[in-house]
Design brief:
Number of strands: 19
Distance between the termini: 18 Å
């Protein structure tokens, strides 16, 4: 661990070039980058080993093998979910904790934000002398645009993609609104009309969804109601195949519901689903044991709580998640009422960061942005406290490099 800390803390980014990039961003879109975004990017890069990256790729590949099994889909899909889009879903985020025991998949997100911003970050460091090699595909802006075109083609064949909407609730108030602007600019540059919209901006017509009279072909979905139950108009249009929605509820159910982790860590159930032994072994070593929290086991959970991390089954962004050793009895009583999973602790990596002239310890996780099983970009998130927050000076997104 000390070797890792030293390697990380010596790998500083070129802050002046990053600041120049952000200043240009602020000039082009004044008012977007508020003071709260000062901690969006960290001043260091994380260096990981070849073995850690190979393990992360192996875990991702094993998950992809599981999810396509008919028995898996029969087990996890809702019985009333009868629409299975051909599109796969953009920007899956496989989040890992790295420590002396290896790489540990803590969760999968099907709505992982930050990729466009992190590409901007990487571009700002193109000439910097950083340790290790980049873990990003070449020409990421084109890769990202072509990914959306591919989603469209999977669903619509050779029909032209004219318009798309980047959708979130009150998008201008969202922390990642700068990314919406950046993404919209890249779509426009590729010849795709792009609108940033709130769900309330849509009007339903017989042939699909419109915003201010413009028919929307594709929605880049940034909503955190993954089932779309709060947005019946969007849900109905998606289920009628009137609009291509990505990422979508179908992908969330297959990959990201945290109850799925209980299956991914149960070797007997994986065998019953038909998964091969090599993939089972990969998941056993690369995914921390995860179990449903049920009220009848209350005393057992309270006694073992220090060994576990408790997460809402349908949560996101660390909201409602708790380290067992930090639990109060009041919060624990809410957890055992249901809707939670417990994941055996896999401690995050740590790195020393100099903040205002003083070194401080930061935790970090590593996110692999994945499309159709292929890793496009690897990034880290530095933080203090229980979960990532983008609020701590010295924290935020950090570049990840792989050792030579």
């Amino acid at each position: 661990m000390e070797v890792l800390k030293n390697a990380c803390s010596s790998c500083g980014i070129n802050r002046s070039t990053l600041d120049q990039t952000l200043d240009k961003f602020k000039t082009e879109w004044p008012g977007v980058m508020q003071e709260a975004h000062d901690n969006l990017f960290s001043n260091i890069a994380i260096v990981i080993s070849t073995a850690q990256m190979e393990q992360m790729r192996a875990v991702i590949a094993a998950v992809e093998k599981v999810v396509v099994l008919p028995a898996w889909q029969q087990q996890v899909l809702n019985k009333d979910s009868n629409f299975a889009p051909a599109s796969k879903g953009v920007f899956f985020g496989y989040d890992f904790h790295l420590n002396a025991e290896g790489a540990h998949l803590i969760e999968i997100n099907t709505n992982a934000g930050g990729a466009f911003l992190c590409d901007l970050f990487q571009q700002s460091q193109a000439g910097a002398e950083l340790a290790g090699k980049s873990l990003a595909m070449e020409n990421l802006p084109q890769v990202f645009v072509e990914m959306f075109r591919h989603e469209w083609k999977l669903q619509r064949g050779s029909a032209p993609l004219h318009t798309m909407a980047i959708v979130d609730v009150a998008p201008r108030s969202q922390y990642f609104y700068p990314e919406f602007i950046l993404a919209s600019q890249q779509f426009e540059a590729a010849g795709i009309k792009s609108i940033i919209a709130d769900p309330a901006d849509f009007d339903a017509h017989a042939d699909g969804l419109y915003v201010d009279g413009t028919k929307i072909d594709l929605i880049y979905n940034r909503l955190t109601d993954f089932s779309l139950q709060q947005y019946p108009l969007l849900l109905a249009s998606y289920q009628k195949n009137q609009v291509v929605l990505t990422p979508h509820p179908h992908a969330y159910i297959l990959y990201a519901d945290k109850r799925n982790l209980t299956l991914l860590t149960d070797k007997e159930r994986l065998r019953a689903l038909g998964l091969d032994e090599t993939s089972i072994a990969t998941l056993q070593s690369g995914v921390p044991e995860t179990r449903l929290v049920e009220a009848q086991d209350e005393q057992q959970w309270w006694g073992e709580r220090k060994d576990w991390f408790f997460k809402p089954a349908t949560g996101y962004g660390g909201r409602g998640s708790y380290r067992g050793d930090k639990l109060t009895q009041r919060v624990f009583a809410e957890i055992v009422r249901g809707g939670y999973v417990a994941q055996r602790k896999a401690m995050p990596g740590e790195v020393m960061v100099k903040v205002a002239g003083t070194e401080a310890a930061f935790k970090y996780d590593v996110r692999c942005y994945v499309y159709e099983g292929q890793v496009q970009l690897v990034i880290a998130r530095l933080y203090q406290g229980q979960t990532t927050n983008f609020r701590t000076a010295g924290g935020g997104f950090a570049l990840v490099r792989i050792e030579h």
